[in-house]
Write a structure and sequence with these properties.
The chain is an alpha/beta fold and 301 residues long. It has twelve helices and eight strands. Helix 5 (134-151) crosses helix 6 (164-177) and helix 6 (164-177) packs parallel to helix 7. It is globular. InterPro entries: HCY_dom (IPR003726), HCY_dom_sf (IPR036589).
Length: 301
């Protein structure tokens, strides 16, 4: 399909994949990586059951479904810690899109089902670390994007971006690969990126690098996102995947138990910023959320 966020279709997407599988299903995910589940039947069954929950929400809500691949950690640095060389990463990133394509056939009654290849940051999703060079970021992320394109993804989606420079590199790589790309930044409690950049400024800098299908914010509570909603952000943000937890990233990183937040509070606080985002079309969740949270956000319980 052709994915066009400028149309009228609204899209349900999923919640906190890794936290759901770890804390609710007892899975061990070394490196916080879910892509190795694609390697065996039991893992694929877990993923199928997980995505089924969100497809059912989209069906009940009369919305489209944005299927996001379990590949947030499937890049060279993180992959190497799990024994994946470049050839193995290329294979698993293609497999992820092929898996989603097969899954799409389970829900043919949903009018719009798009396949998104997920890209994570090179480093930690909660810490900016050393500011990358845009050209180096493009080189680093290009193989994953090319694998998504070869496998037939509708778009790539870089999530939990902590710097505009890395996001801009991903946009350049996607442009070279001929694949539409979306960018979702994460923000701290003050509404700024982990490196201190204002959300709107990061969006503007990234947009200068090339075409972006849409911008979003993930892995932050709606109240935290609200602090970053300047003119550029309110005009451009089309996707939100919030946390229900109000904890800081540092607190979440150190937590030994899952903070699922308060579902009614999540709904109220998201609704409080929804009216300020005229382009918003995609809503899901992030760390600590599951199908219960997303169903509440769509009033599809």
């Amino acid at each position: 399909m052709t994915f066009d966020i400028s149309g009228e279709a609204r899209y349900v997407t999923d919640g906190g994949l890794e936290t759901d599988l770890i804390y609710h299903h007892g899975l061990d995910l070394p490196g916080f990586a879910s892509f190795p589940l694609l390697e065996h039947a039991t893992g694929r069954d877990h993923l199928t059951s997980y995505y089924d929950g969100y497809a059912a929400i989209a069906d009940r809500a009369g919305a489209g479904l944005l299927l996001e691949s379990p590949t947030w950690r499937a890049n060279p640095d993180w992959g190497a810690t799990l024994g994946y060389d470049p050839a193995a990463l290329d294979r698993i990133n293609r497999t992820a899109i092929e898996f989603l394509r097969q899954f799409r056939q389970r829900w043919t009654g949903i009018d719009h089902v798009a396949l998104s290849g997920v890209i994570g940051p090179r480093g930690d999703g909660y810490v900016a670390g050393e500011r990358p060079e845009t050209a180096e970021a493009a080189r680093y992320h290009r193989p994953q994007i090319e694998a998504f394109a070869a496998a037939g993804a509708d778009l790539a989606h870089a999530m939990t971006m902590t710097t505009a420079a890395e996001a801009a590199g991903i946009v350049r790589a996607a442009r070279d690969a001929g694949l539409p790309v979306a960018i979702s930044f994460t923000v701290e409690t003050d509404g700024r990126l982990p490196d201190g950049t204002a959300l709107g400024a990061a969006i503007d800098e990234t947009a200068d690098a090339g075409p972006v299908a849409y911008f979003g914010v993930n892995c932050a509570h709606p109240d935290h996102i609200a602090h970053g909603l300047d003119a550029s952000a309110t005009r451009m943000i089309a996707a939100l995947r919030p946390n229900a937890s109000r904890l800081t990233h540092a607190e979440l990183d150190a937590a030994e138990e899952l903070d699922e937040g308060d579902i009614p509070d999540l709904r109220v606080t998201l609704d409080s910023i929804r009216r300020d985002l005229p382009a918003l079309r995609i809503v899901g969740g992030c760390c600590g959320t599951d199908a219960r949270h997303v169903a509440a956000l769509w009033d599809a319980r």
